[in-house]
Structure formats: structure tokens, C-alpha cells
Design a protein that fits this description.
One of its GO terms (molecular function) is peptidase activity. Keywords: Hydrolase, Protease. With 179 residues, this protein is an alpha+beta fold. The chain has 4 helices and 14 strands. The protein starts with a strand and ends in a 6-residue tail after the last strand. The mean pLDDT is 93.
């Protein structure tokens, strides 16, 4: 099975940007043992004011957010994954949109073939396919980066639709060298 890192397409310069998120949600709150504490919160964030706003289907930072349409696809593959509704408000355009915070589980699937920079960040990411095979969408345990990986079938399903703002990068698997 092939896996891909899903990320926000940085080529879209006018992509929407929620503000004030880091004052409400910390990185630690996105871990499995903390997630249920957010169930009672009503999350609403204003968008950074720009001349134009492009409503992309995947927002990577400061927290991973999916558009409602994109969430519907992901949910078909992983129905029990944690989703939390987040309202994004564009005060200038008097517009509100529902996005979904996702927090895929962390999987210990990092291969010994992975390489790191001296500061601990990933230089070459390699996963152990056998440890990841039963997961459709997940994060990797044991690295500083907060990559979200999706399986080939999920990637194909996303690519068949007209989603914007999503980039996919193939991940190396143990024993398979691709240059």
C-alpha cells in the first residue's frame, strides 16, 4: 500500500487563514488522550482580513481543518476518527463556513531507515508498511513534524473530486528506495 503526506497547497496565496486559534487550542490538546475535553467547546474563529479569500478544502496550520465536503469523504474511510466542528467567520464578507478539526491517531510506524537532521527534524521519512497497513489516515509517532498520512485509496478518492488547496507527497516505505 502506498501512503501520502497530505498538506495545504502553499501555491494558493489567498487561502483563508483562521486567527486566534493558538490562544484556544494547543498542540497537546490534539493528542488522543486530550481530545474529548474539546467536545464541550464551541469553536469559532475569525479569518485574517485579505482582499480576497480562497476557501481551500484543507487547512494545515495552525490546526488541521477539512472543509465539510472533504470531511464527508474522509469519514467514509475512517468513521470513528475524531472530528470537531469549527466555524470560520469572514466578517468582511459576512460569511460563516463549517470546517472540521481532525486529529488522526499517532501510529508507531517509523522505519529505522528514516534519517534525521541534527536538530531532530526528519531528513528522509521512511515508514514500516506492515505497521501502517491497517490505517487509512494517521500521524506518525516519534517525529517532531505533525505530518498527516493517508492511504492510496483515500488519496485517489480525494483526487477524483474537485477539491482545492490539497497537495499529496508520496512517502517512502521500508525496503523500497525511490529517488
Amino acid at each position: 500500500m502506498n501512503y501520502f503526506i497530505i498538506s495545504q497547497d502553499e501555491r494558493i496565496f489567498d487561502a483563508i487563514e483562521p486567527t486566534g486559534v493558538s490562544q484556544v487550542i494547543t498542540r497537546e490538546q490534539l493528542e488522543e488522550e486530550q481530545l474529548r475535553k474539546m467536545d464541550k467547546l464551541i469553536l469559532q474563529f475569525s479569518l485574517k482580513e485579505k482582499t480576497t479569500n480562497e476557501y481551500v478544502d484543507f487547512i494545515q496550520r495552525p490546526i488541521p481543518l477539512l472543509s465539510d465536503q472533504c470531511k464527508q469523504i474522509i469519514e467514509k474511510y475512517v468513521p470513528h476518527m475524531y472530528f470537531k466542528s469549527v466555524v470560520l467567520v469572514d466578517r468582511k464578507q459576512m460569511r460563516q463556513d463549517v470546517y472540521w478539526l481532525i486529529a488522526p491517531p499517532r501510529i508507531n510506524c517509523l522505519s529505522d531507515e528514516s534519517e534525521f537532521h541534527k536538530d531532530g527534524t526528519i531528513k528522509r521519512l521512511v515508514i514500516d508498511e506492515q505497521k501502517a497497513i491497517s490505517h487509512k489516515i494517521f500521524r506518525i509517532d516519534g517525529i517532531l513534524e505533525d505530518y498527516i498520512l493517508i492511504s492510496l485509496d483515500v488519496a485517489e478518492s480525494l483526487l477524483r473530486r474537485n477539491f482545492t488547496g490539497i497537495r499529496l507527497k508520496k512517502v517512502e516505505k521500508e525496503g523500497v528506495y525511490e529517488r
